[in-house]
Amino acid sequence: MARQIDLHAHSTASDGTLAPAALMRRAHAAGVDVMALTDHDTLSGLDEAALEARRLDMEFVPGVEVSVTWRAATIHVVGLNIDPRCELLIGGLARLQAFRDWRAEEIGRRLAAAGIDGAFEGARARSNGRLISRTHFARFLVDNGRAPDVRAVFRKFLVNGKPGFVAGQWAGLEDAVGWIRAAGGQAVIAHPARYAMTRTRLKQLLGEFVAVGGEGIEVVSGSHSRDDYLTMAHLARTSGLLASAGSDYHGPEHPWVELGRLPPLPDGCKPIWKDWSITN
Ligand code: AMP
Ligand code: MN
Ligand code: MN
Ligand code: MN
Questions:
Q1: In the predicted model, what is the mean pLDDT of residues 3-14?
Q2: Nearest Cα to Cα of residue 192 among 168, 224, 215
Q3: Which of 14, 15, 173, 198 has minimal Cβ neighbours within 10 Å of its Cβ?
Q4: Does the pLDDT of residue 280 top 50, yes or no?
Q5: What does the domain layout of the chain look like in residue ranges?
Q6: Nearest protein CA to atom 11 of ligand 1, as residue
Q7: Mean pLDDT over residues 45-58, rounded?
Q8: Ligand 3 mean position, distance from CA 58 (Å)
Q9: Counting atoms of ligand 1 from 1, which one is nearest the CA of 65?
Q10: What residues have their beta carbon closer than 5 A to ion ligand 2?
């Protein structure tokens, strides 16, 4: 059977619902052979995940998913095989975490102005003292009956034009790629089909990404359709990018994505792991 390689997932260090060790156990039980942890803008789950993966004898890829503002759009850049002790990366992420802290209070103020009290406190309580994401606001709003599920609540409150939206002021593309490279990692454009971009604009993004040292693009993703796999495989080839695969798993409460179910990369893709010394 083909190896299961999953290079994108979240834990309670950001907006996942499983602790890093529990995530590794679930991945192992689901038959994953090579598992990354890529929390949003933080490295704080990596030590725990690495330890548990070693205990399970499963290959572990230390990663991060960096929030980036590119031409007023928010995009995500995954860093794979990063050294979590890299000061440049740590310092860059600290700035994003500070923005998140301010943004969380601002989202709280805006929702209060729209008649929803206690959202900041509710989101903070759901983040367990770690990084606060819009997902934590979404869970608070669902628990308060504002919408039936996380997806609906995003549409109603947390996206551009809605009461709880605050524009991102994330890392620049070149900075994000620079931090990842400084940490010895490979930079990968996450879930490209999720950005509401024209093909022309997406190609511009990929061109700039390659120019600043980006190396990969997620072709197979938990948030891609089968058509998206083929589209992105083609874009990977024509842009000279390596192909990555990741579930973007956030926990069992988000049942539309499960671990251990990723299909193989389409034919003609060069995998991002082609030069890695993975053994099993
Ligand atoms: P943040 O980085 O705090 O702005 O939150 C972004 C996270 O929110 C993403 O990584 C997803 O986990 C989640 N998210 C974004 N849009 C949606 C959506 N439409 N439905 C469900 N979750 C979403
Ligand atoms: Mn997320
Ligand atoms: Mn993402
Ligand atoms: Mn993600």
A1: 97
A2: 224
A3: 198
A4: no
A5: 5-85+184-246
A6: 135
A7: 98
A8: 24
A9: 10
A10: 15
46-49: which pairs have CB atoms within 8 A and are 24 or more residues apart?
46/20, 46/84, 47/84, 48/19, 48/20, 48/21, 49/11, 49/20, 49/21, 49/23, 49/24
CA of 78 to the centre of ligand 4 (A): 8
CA of 115 to the centre of ligand 3 (A): 29
CATH superfamily of 5-85+184-246: Metal-dependent hydrolases (3.20.20.140)
List all residues whose CB is within 6 A of at least one atom of ligand 1. Answer: 15, 40, 67, 133-135, 150-151, 154, 250
Structure tokens at 78: 């995954």
Amino acid 101 reads D
Residue of the nearest CA to atom 2 in ligand 1?
A: 133
The pTM (predicted TM-score) of the whole model is 0.98
To the nearest whole number, what is the mean pLDDT of the chain? 96
Q: Are 217 and 236 in contact (CB under 8 A)?
A: yes
Residue 2: pLDDT above 80? Answer: no
- pLDDT band of residue 279 (cuts 50, 70, 90) is low
